[in-house]
Amino acid sequence: MTSSSPTAAPIDSQARRARMLAHRLIVACVCSLPVMVISMVPGAQFPGWQWVCAALALPVVTWCAAPFYASAWQAGRHGSTTMNTLISLGIIASIAWSYYALFFTEAGAIGVMAPMEFLPRSGSAAPHVYFEGATMIATFLLLGRWLEARSRHRAGDALRSLLSLGAKRATVVQVDDNGAMSEHEVPVEDLVEGDLVRVRPGEKIPTDGRIEQGTSAIDTSLVTGESLPREVGPSDPVIGATLNTSGALLVRVTAVGRDTMLAHIARMVADAQAGKAPIQRLADRVSAVFVPVILALALATFIGWLVMGASVSQAITVAVSVLVIACPCALGLATPTALLVGSGRAAQLGVVFRGPEILEGAHRIDTMVLDKTGTLTTGVMEVDAVHPLGESSRGPRGLTPAGTRLLRLAGAAEASSEHPLARAVVRAAVADGDTPLPAGTRFGNHAGMGIHAVVGDELVLVGQTRWLSELGLDVPTELRNAERQAAISGASVVAVALGHEMPTEHDAAEETGGDKEPEPTATSLDFAIEGMTCAACVSRVERALNSVDGVDATVNLATESARANVPIDHPRAGDLESLSADLIEAVTASGYTAKPQTSDEVTHRRHRDDTLRPLVGGEVLGLIIVRDRVRETSVEAIRDLRTLGITPHLATGDNAGAAGAVAARVGIESVDAEVTPGDKRDIVARLQREGATVAMVGDGVNDAAALAQAGQRGLGMAMGQGTDAAIAAADVTLIRSDIRSAVTAIRVGRRTLAIIKENLAWAFGYNIIAVPLAIAGLANPMLAAAFMASSSVLVVANSLRLRRAG
């Protein structure tokens, strides 16, 4: 799926339309402003001024206003009238009369000035020109159309963001008949089903596939909305554009191009946006009746004045007055001025409105679908409680001595881990004490289960209770019950234990004071490692070394070195040269450089095994409960939504326990958990079919399709810290990433729509009063233009009231 696909085609047409309108708007502004100043300020008039205005007005009322004429013509061909009909007639009537007066009456005489006459003289048919009215009508409406075209073009940003999210290149692995592997890079577009690709730590998975070799933790948050990386191994499926955070993987391609999950999400966004029906502006709906009525009145006025004995010139003057006084300048300003002021005020409050079509949705919103991670919650894992054995759970502040010991032991052991749960434990442990955490050694990671490390002289185990049970430790019922309750509430739980390993012969000799040199149990190879900068790098290099058959490796960031241990009785221990070459290749494949520590020679020595040996005893100290923290403002926001008459609904990719716990905390009754991006879109569509006007609030690529679907009949709202795809697919961006901003968006949107309706009411009400005056001959075209200008000023003044909205 590329930028040349049909999905992306409408983006270019919208860009061309926005550029076309921008060019016409620039010309209109350059020409119209002098016409307005000269025509409205008698002191600025000079001999021949009206001819200069006529020349400046010509490109505005022809080339600049051409889109209005074309649209009005198309509507007329189908027997209907729209705002474009009013705009076109107003411009044509004003300019036609002006040119008539300029060429065939004394209005074109050099030296004639244009006095401000608001009351016509008795029987007067004094000639006037109205170039300023014609040009400013075109200019104001071009501004509104350009803003609309630009916002529609930005709707394509959602697709561009989705299409650019995936990896651009992939490393294809080819295996020859002898089993030797070779690698080469290709563009992702060249991948085919069945290809074998290598994905190194820190790289994006290029396309959908299934793991053939390796284990890792995959960050799928951008695509699926899961808050924690997912542990994967051989035979597990993976999704393109997700991030490989740790181990090197070999992935067999199962889907490419249009068949991938990412392409599927992109199509859903495109389909939802293409399905947006154009919202009929209130002005357009009323003008469908208003335009024919004005046309009929102008014609009837012309005939009536002729029947009553008026001259043709007088009859034309009065008829044109009717058209000019009914000119839709106030109608043209009613929406854009309110939008400009309302959107400016919203921006001050941390809300960015995408376009005018959201206003009707904001007025009618009665249901709001909310994502959990990053929307109602912070999206950052934090320690919620510490539960030492024999004590009650406490928050990370105000712990008992047993709780403090438990947390600091776990923090020291987890210091070398990059897992989000480990990071949360380390942060809490550092914040709890006044002294640095003790250093941990012999760190070992047990994928998907836990870690072990030696802290001081104690072996610390941190991980799942199931793993501790498999190691032979007894997990008390008290802790199992606490773990079960925490899981029900949606929290993640890690257990902390101390273990006692089975002693080796070397340990026994040391304890008895014997002098016998222990029999060697393993051989080690030492390497210098280049390119490591953090604990995550240590983990990646260890995984790379440990991927070689028979090797158990440890890596030291401080000395930038690694030691690879292989049992003395392992077949590979007999060919250290070959083993060293394989280890160097594995490290290189993970993105780092390994060199034998002594020149180019392989160094090795006998030593005792320092891997985690079978346990002969130990004790479980307690549990640490970690959860994604609910935003402090979420409860208040949900309460405010209910006050506005809006029903909240939670839809999340997280498990039912986590979803239910957050929903209960903030006060949401309707919950859908473990949903896919397509499910979210379907939930919004179902609510819409049931008659609800839905606002969707989310922050990830997994929310993009639902956000776009909500725009069909409601609003899509993206949190400001969300992905580009989510923000681009939404109608509203909440800059402050505070769910209360969604409430502000509804309030400002409703208030803006109310002001627009007031403006339109004034604009139409003005016509109801002013048109009879024109029919009666009490308002010549000049006075009609003045009335029109006054109407516009009042509309702008009313729009400025939005500066206090929110």
Automatic annotation (TrEMBL):
One GO cellular component term noted in the UniProt record for this chain: plasma membrane
Membrane-spanning intervals of the chain: 21-42, 48-70, 82-105, 125-144, 286-308, 314-341, 760-776, 782-800
Q: Which InterPro entries match?
A: ATPase_P-typ_cyto_dom_N, ATPase_P-typ_P_site, ATPase_P-typ_TM_dom_sf, ATPase_P-typ_transduc_dom_A_sf, ATPase_P-type_domA, HAD-like_sf, HAD_sf, Heavy-metal-associated_CS
Molecular function, one GO term: copper ion binding
Q: Where is the HMA domain?
A: 523-595
Domain of life where this protein originates? Bacteria
GO BP, sorted A to Z: copper ion homeostasis
| Its membrane topology | Multi-pass membrane protein
Subcellular location per UniProt equals:
Cell membrane
Going by the UniProt record, its keywords in alphabetical order are: ATP-binding, Cell membrane, Membrane, Metal-binding, Nucleotide-binding, Translocase, Transmembrane, Transmembrane helix
What Gene3D superfamilies does the record point to? 3.30.70.100, Calcium-transporting ATPase, cytoplasmic domain N (3.40.1110.10), Calcium-transporting ATPase, cytoplasmic transduction domain A (2.70.150.10), HAD superfamily/HAD-like (3.40.50.1000)
Predominant location:
membrane
Q: Which family does it belong to?
A: Belongs to the cation transport ATPase (P-type) (TC 3.A.3) family. Type IB subfamily.
> Could you identify this protein by its name?
Heavy metal translocating P-type ATPase
Native organism is Nanchangia anserum
